[in-house]
Amino acid sequence: MQARYRASAAAAAVFALAVLVSAAAGAADGPTRTLTLYNIHTKETVTAAYKKDGKFVPAEMEKINWIMRDWRRDETTTMDPGLIDLLWEMHSELGSKEPIHIISGYRSRTTNDMLRRTVGGQASQSRHILGKAADVHFPDVPLKKLRYSALVQEKGGVGYYPTSAIPFVHVDIDRPRSWPRLPRAELALLFPNGRTQHLAADGGPIDKGDVREAHARHKELAEQVAAFHAGRGKQQPPPVHTAGLVPPAPKLLSPPKLAQRPPPAKRQAEMEVVTAPAYDEEHPEELSYRPFPIAPFLTATASVDDPALAVMVHPDLGKVLELMDQEYVTPPLRLRPGQHEAQRLWALETRGEAIDLSALSDTGAAVQQGRKVATKPQ
Questions:
Q1: pLDDT of 205 over the 60 cut
Q2: What sign does the CA torsion over 113, 118, 122, 126 have?
Q3: Cα torsion through 136, 142, 143, 144, rounded to 10
C-alpha cells in the first residue's frame, strides 16, 4: 500500500514538474508579434512578424527600419526594439484593425541640421534621431484613447497633437514624461491607484486624495476614463454580414436635435481644451502646427487644381534683389495718383464732365529718366 502511494506521489510530482516546465517555456516563447505599418509620406505598407518565440527576427526588423526611415533621404537606422514592442502593445490593447500610420519615425542628422537651419531650434539629440521615437496615428481609434494607452504604459515620452493637420501622438523610449501634461483630475482618474511617474499640469505627483476628489467633482470625465480602462485589451468583434447580402441601413432611434450643452464655466471645468504648442523642438515639420489646410476655404472648390490657385504666382523676390544689385540698372518707377488727383477727379464729377482714366493707366507716363542736374558750388 505504501509502495503504491509512493509511486502515485512520484507520478504526480513528475506531472506537476512537466506542467511547470511547459508553462515556463510557453511564457518564455510568447506569441508571435506582427505589425502592419503605413508610411503616410511614401504610401508604403509593410507587414512584419518581427518577434517569434520571444526573440526579434532580424529580417523582419529590417522591414520596419525601412518603412520608418528618413523619407527625405531614404536613410535608415536600427529602430529601438523597445519602441516597436510599445507600438505593438498599444495597437493590441486598443483592438485596432487598421495599419499603424507612421507620421514620423527616424530623422537623420543631416535632415535635422537642415531643419535647424531653415526652421531653427531642433534638439541635437532628438529621440527621432536616435531611432527611439515615432509619431503615430491609429485610423480606427480616437486620438484621446491612443494618448491614454501611451501614458499608462509609462515607458517613455508622450506628446499629444490633436490640432495637427494629421492628428498624432508622439511616443518614445525614454524617461516617462508628457506634453502637454494632463490636468490633475484627469491624470488621477487615469491612474486610479494614485501612483504614476507622470506629473500633473500644475506640477507635482498625484496621490489617493486626488483620485477621490476627481471621482467626486468630475463624474462625466470619470465615466469616460472608466470606459477606456474597461475596453483595454478587449478585441472588437468584426461586423457580421450575411453572405451575399447588403447589411441593412441603420435606423434612427429618434429624430436629430440640438445638443444641450452646459454653461461655459461648467464645461471648462469638465473638459480639457488642448491647443497646439507654440514651439516644439521635436516636431518642426510642416505637419506639426497647421490646425487645418486653408486653401480649400479660399476657393470655390476644395481641389488643389482650382483655377484660382492655378493662376496664383508668388513674387520672385530673388529677381528683384538681383536687379537692385546691378549698379547701372534703374528699375522703372511708376507714381500712383495721390490726394490731389482724387480731388481733381471729384471736381470733374461734380461738374458733370466725363472722367478720363486713361492717363492713370499709362505705364510710360511716369518712368524715371536719367538726366544731368546742374549744381552750384557752395
A1: yes
A2: negative
A3: -140
In CATH, what number is assigned to the domain containing residue 61? 3.30.1380.10
- For the ranges 63-72, 177-186, 215-224, 304-313, the lowest mean pLDDT is seen at 304-313
Q: What is the domain extent for residue 317?
A: 296-324
Give residue 150's pLDDT band: very low, low, confident or very high (50, 70, 90): very high
Number of structural domains the chain divides into: 2
In a domain, 251, yes or no: no
Counting Cβ atoms within 10 Å, is residue 256 exposed (0-12), middle (13-18) or buried (19+)?
exposed
Choose between 88 and 254: higher pLDDT.
Answer: 88
Residue of 82, 68, 77, 74 whose CA lies nearest to 136? 68
Residue 164's Cβ-side half-sphere holds a number of Cα atoms within 13 Å equal to 23
Q: How far apart are CA 50 and CA 157, in angstroms?
A: 23
Q: Is residue 139 part of a domain?
A: yes
The greatest distance separating any two alpha carbons of the chain, rounded to the nearest whole angstrom, comes to 141
Q: What is the pTM of this model?
A: 0.61
Q: In what order do the strands lie in the sheet with 44-52?
A: 55-56, 44-52, 33-39, 100-104, 133-137, 168-172, 157-161, 177-179
Q: Which of 140, 164, 180 is the last residue of a domain?
A: 180
Burial class (CB in 10 A: 0-12, 13-18, 19+), 345: middle
Cell readout for 45 is 505598407
Question: SS3 of 86, please?
Answer: helix
Distance (Å, rounded) from C-alpha 201 to C-alpha 189?
A: 14
DSSP H helical ranges for 218-263: 219-231
Tell me if 173 is assigned to some domain.
Answer: yes
> Which range has the worst mean pLDDT, 61-65, 155-159, 238-242, 297-301?
238-242
Write down which residue in 180, 203, 221 finishes a domain: 180
In a domain, 330, yes or no: no
Cβ neighbours of residue 130 under 8 Å, at least 6 residues apart? 80
Average pLDDT of the segment spanning 151-173: 90
- Residue 268 burial (CB count, 10 A): 11
Q: State yes or no: pLDDT of 217 exceeds 80.
A: yes
Distance CA 252, CA 164 (A): 33
Average pLDDT for residues 238-263, to the nearest whole number?
Answer: 60
Beta strands in 114-234 (DSSP E): 133-137, 157-161, 168-172, 177-179
